[in-house]
């Protein structure tokens, strides 16, 4: 983690809490650093993906879905309030039930103002947030019956978006099969034309 905030008692408690974050049992977990030099803000997004039945928090589908979890930490040195966070989805990702979980991660954070799937079929899962400098979100969660891949995620301060790669569900096998057949058909069609 790249936390360069001044060391105060509150920061020491926050770092100690992060070290105790329950990523144990996660299929994948880590931290991605987001920075906007032009707009003067820095943030970390902690992430974890849990296999069905392994999620230590609270979610309606925790027993039969993968649970995707993200928690946002806006640095004290930031000059902007963070206003939105989204994670891209492929067709067939079968994401469902976006929201937050205040029982997971560092508790006491800011709950999202709105959690939703964008598009039909959904092209992303998004949260409208209000995270001031030196503050953080509750755990932002959603579920999918599908395992993970790396996909583009965006963190926005109201004026500028910064993108990084975070875990997102792999499309269901039937969708992947159809995409593969479509690609094969295009290749065969091109061969016949030449």
What does this structure look like?
The chain has one domain (9-193): Immunoglobulin-like. The chain has helices spanning 9-19, 173-193, and strands at 28-36, 41-50, 66-74, 82-88, 96-101, 114-119, 122-131, 135-136, 139-144, 148-156, 161-169. The N and C termini lie far apart (53 Å). It is built from 2 helices and 11 strands; from the N terminus they run H-E-E-E-E-E-E-E-E-E-E-E-H. By secondary structure, the protein is an alpha+beta fold. The chain is 16% helix and 43% strand. A hairpin with a 4-residue loop joins strand 1 and strand 2 (41-50). Strands 1, 2, 3, 5, 8 and 9 form a 6-stranded antiparallel sheet that branches. A 5-stranded antiparallel sheet has the order 6-7-4-10-11, with no helix packed on it. The longest helix has 21 residues, at 173-193.
CATH topology: Immunoglobulin-like
Compute the CA-based radius of gyration. Answer: 18 Å
The stretches of 5 or more residues where confidence is low (pLDDT under 50) are: 1-21, 174-181
CATH class bucket: Mainly Beta
Number of helices: 2
The computed structural class is: alpha+beta
């Amino acid at each position: 983690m790249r936390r360069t905030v001044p060391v105060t008692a509150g920061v020491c408690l926050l770092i100690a809490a992060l070290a105790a974050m329950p990523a144990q049992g996660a299929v994948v977990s880590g931290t991605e650093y987001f920075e906007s030099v032009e707009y003067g803000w820095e943030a970390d997004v902690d992430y974890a993906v849990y296999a069905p039945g392994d999620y230590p928090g609270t979610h309606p589908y925790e027993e039969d879905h993968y649970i995707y979890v993200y928690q946002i930490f806006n640095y004290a040195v930031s000059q902007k309030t963070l206003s939105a966070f989204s994670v891209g989805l492929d067709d067939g990702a079968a994401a469902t039930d976006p929201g937050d979980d205040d029982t997971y991660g560092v508790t006491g954070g800011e709950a999202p103002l709105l959690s939703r799937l964008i598009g039909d079929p959904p092209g992303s899962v998004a949260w409208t947030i209000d995270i001031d400098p030196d503050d953080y979100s509750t755990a932002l969660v959603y579920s999918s019956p599908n395992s993970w891949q790396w996909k583009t995620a965006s963190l926005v301060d109201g004026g500028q978006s910064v993108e990084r790669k975070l875990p997102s569900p792999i499309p269901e096998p039937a969708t992947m099969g159809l995409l593969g057949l479509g690609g094969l058909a295009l290749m065969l069609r091109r061969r016949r034309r030449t």
